[in-house]
Design goal:
Elements lengths: L1 E3 L5 H15 L7 H14 L3 E8 L2 E13 L4 E11 L8 H15 L5 E3 L8 H9 L14
Helix pairs in contact: 1-2
């Protein structure tokens, strides 16, 4: 089952995002409490951030965070997948695709013309890139960041 996350889901969202960051090598277990607080704040006060959770029974097994952005090149508002994670034992079972489909449905409701996502470093994370390509995404190049 996939559903929109609410502020009450902040701990589950943070737990899954934390697992994603640990897997990518950029996480720190000592920051978990900060991530819960950030998730709760964003899910409560940000009308441009959306979270979807996937469940197996009562257990949250996947998360997708999606934010709304805007640009002239995108012809207005569009979505950006900022985090997408499924626990390892539930991968390759269609959970990530269901999360992306929920984001696509939201994007259509909000009249977005596209959804973008940054894939992790290649070729180490080739499976992730392959998933997005199979889901209909088109590769447009690397994404860069500048810390402020």
């Amino acid at each position: 089952m996939i559903r929109r996350a609410t502020p009450r889901d902040a701990a589950s969202v943070a737990r899954l995002v934390d697992a994603l960051l640990m897997e990518l090598g950029g996480g720190s277990p000592s920051r978990y409490a900060d991530r819960v607080a950030t998730a709760e704040r964003l899910l409560t006060h940000d009308d441009r951030l959306f979270a979807f959770l996937a469940f197996a029974g009562e257990r949250a097994i996947g998360v997708m965070m999606l934010s709304e952005s805007a640009a002239i090149y995108a012809d207005g508002q569009f979505g950006v997948i900022t985090e997408l994670y499924v626990v390892p034992e539930h991968r390759s079972g269609g959970v990530a695709k269901m999360l992306v489909d929920a984001g696509v449905a939201l994007g259509r409701e909000r009249a977005w013309r596209r959804i973008e996502v940054g894939a992790p470093h290649q070729p180490e994370w080739a499976r992730t890139l392959s998933f997005y390509l199979r889901a209909g995404f088109i590769e447009i190049g690397p994404r860069l960041k500048l810390f402020l």
